[in-house]
Design a protein that fits this description.
Blueprint lengths: L1 H22 L1 H26 L3 H12 L5 H10 L3 H43 L10 H41 L1 H14 L2 H18 L1 E4 L2 E4 H19 L8 H16 L2 H18 L17 H18 L3 H20 L2 H4 L6 H8 L2 H10 L7 H16 L6 H20 L5 H18 L8 H15 L7 H13 L3
Antiparallel strand pairs: 1-2
């Protein structure tokens, strides 16, 4: 294979040189000039292509989308998105550039060839020199070799550029696509091993590929090959995670989520596009409007009363950060880390268990503490710390109805909290002191009632802080006040 791939181009070059002697020096010179002009024209074509912006193609898009269901909405969306339209056009032109470079070269080569024949014919007719077929090996051989190398270089460009892109992506997919990826990678490796590609690489091919596939987003420059690794990681991990039920997520899935998040952060394309989509979607949902016909996700099925505020906070966080590349990536990292915490702590697996396993998992261990620490590390997510505390409060409200003597336990618990809070609010103590004492009361009451929830001490303190904050202005608190307070959390589970 390697021998034949070397012999064939040499044989073709020999035929081209022989034909050069047949057509003569003048025609060979005219042809190499035509090839040079074609190369320059192809480069100018690519430069022109890369200068195209969204404003240039928007009238064409308007015509194509006219009459479609979401045609006007798509155009409005792209126009309102600060950089999305130009970013998508920039990426599209970067992807098209290698093939446009090669095709435009071929088209101009054909045009210049025809023009060359016409010029040669005219020169031959008016020339007094009868020796129209003068042959000079010193001129013909270098010109033919240059013509062959330029043509080969241009035609190999799309093969090399798309091969690099595909190789990076498929290299990341071999663990999930297995046989299919292996065949593609093997084919690309064989092409890379050919002498023609080797020559292409050492004669500046890599630099040309990077230039052709380069693009700029928000002032940041990259190219498709650099993006390919991140895209491959993202696609591979999405495929892997989609093959596993959420209720089965564990350490392996957590690692996949981490790698997925890293891939998004390493990409320039995906955060830019996703950021604009997220901004527009959250903008619509915060106004109780639909986004391309899609309403905001409905959390009623998982206990809406307790999650509505959390979801609204999440929408606002992503809406505020969506157009800030670094902040948006940081938010995605926080979400990924949150999922990792839930997976590693077995929260997803507990979803499939009977009874209150999920509530037990969220309230009994250190999961809430880990989530609070994670949210505390991201300024935008600090607002969710109170929402996470609400989940624990919901656990308490639910737990109070578990024992057989629930009625008695509930009365003891609410009575103890009411008395303690009334005393604390009139004691002049600081909020920190109130929280510490109330946390002890909560733990003692649970222990006395033999409720089988091993609440983490730091997590209980969060719950105490929530209660103190909500009842801090009360000078007198009744048992019914506390009962109503926890009833809301308990009913969210029903």
């Amino acid at each position: 294979m390697g021998f034949m791939s070397l012999i064939f181009p040499l044989l073709l070059l020999g035929i081209m040189i022989a034909w050069g002697f047949v057509i003569g020096t003048r025609n060979v010179v005219i042809r190499i000039i035509g090839v040079g002009v074609s190369l320059i024209a192809a480069i100018i074509t690519v430069i022109t292509l890369k200068s195209v912006g969204f404003s240039t193609i928007s009238p064409i898009l308007a015509t194509l989308l006219s009459g479609t269901e979401f045609g006007d909405s798509i155009l409005d969306f792209l126009a309102s998105a600060e950089t999305l339209g130009d970013s998508m056009v920039s990426i599209a032109t970067a992807f098209a550039a290698p093939i446009v470079f090669a095709v435009s070269f071929v088209v101009f080569a054909i045009i210049t060839m025809v023009i060359g024949w016409i010029v040669s014919l005219i020169v031959a007719l008016v020339s007094a020199n009868k020796d129209r077929k003068k042959r000079s090996a010193v001129i013909i051989v270098p010109c033919v070799i240059a013509q062959a190398l330029i043509t080969l270089f241009v035609l190999l460009t799309p093969i090399a550029a798309y091969g690099d892109f595909a190789n990076e992506i498929m290299g990341r997919l071999d663990s999930v696509l297995e046989d299919e990826a292996a065949v593609i990678v093997e084919t690309i490796d064989e092409a890379e091993a050919s002498p023609a590609i080797a020559v292409y690489r050492v004669t500046g091919g890599n630099a040309v590929c990077k230039w052709l596939t380069s693009f700029k987003i928000d002032g940041h420059k990259s190219n498709l090959v650099n993006e390919a690794d991140a895209i491959g990681r993202i696609i591979g991990n999405v495929i892997y995670l989609s093959d596993h039920k959420i209720s089965e997520y564990g350490e392996d899935e957590a690692n996949a989520i981490r790698d997925l998040s890293d891939g998004i952060s390493d990409s320039l394309i995906l955060p830019a596009i996703a950021g604009e989509v997220v901004y527009s979607a959250t903008d619509a949902w915060l106004e109780d409007e639909s986004f391309f016909g899609a309403p905001a996700p409905n959390l009623d099925e998982i206990g809406a009363g307790i999650f509505d505020e959390t979801f609204t906070h999440l929408l606002q966080i992503f809406h505020d950060d969506a157009r800030d590349h670094d902040a948006f990536c940081a938010d995605l990292d926080t979400i990924a880390n949150t999922v990792v915490i839930l997976a590693e702590d077995g929260v997803f697996r507990s979803m499939g268990e009977e009874g209150n396993a999920l509530i037990d998992k969220l309230s009994g261990g250190t999961t809430v503490r880990k989530l609070v620490a994670e949210f505390d590390s991201n300024p935008g997510f600090k607002i969710l710390i109170g929402d996470i505390t609400n989940i624990g409060m919901r656990a308490i409200g639910t737990a109070l109805n578990i024992p057989e003597n629930a009625e008695e336990v509930y009365a003891d618990f609410t009575g103890s909290i009411a008395n303690e809070l009334t005393e604390l609010n009139n004691s002049g103590k600081s909020d920190d002191e109130k929280c510490a004492e109330l946390a002890d009361i909560i733990k003692e009451t649970f222990a006395e009632a033999e409720i089988e929830y091993e609440l983490d001490a730091e997590v209980v303190k969060l719950y105490a802080e929530k209660i103190v904050a909500d009842f801090g202005s009360y000078s007198e608190i009744t048992e019914e006040d506390i009962a109503e307070y926890f009833r809301a959390y308990s009913e969210a589970e029903k």
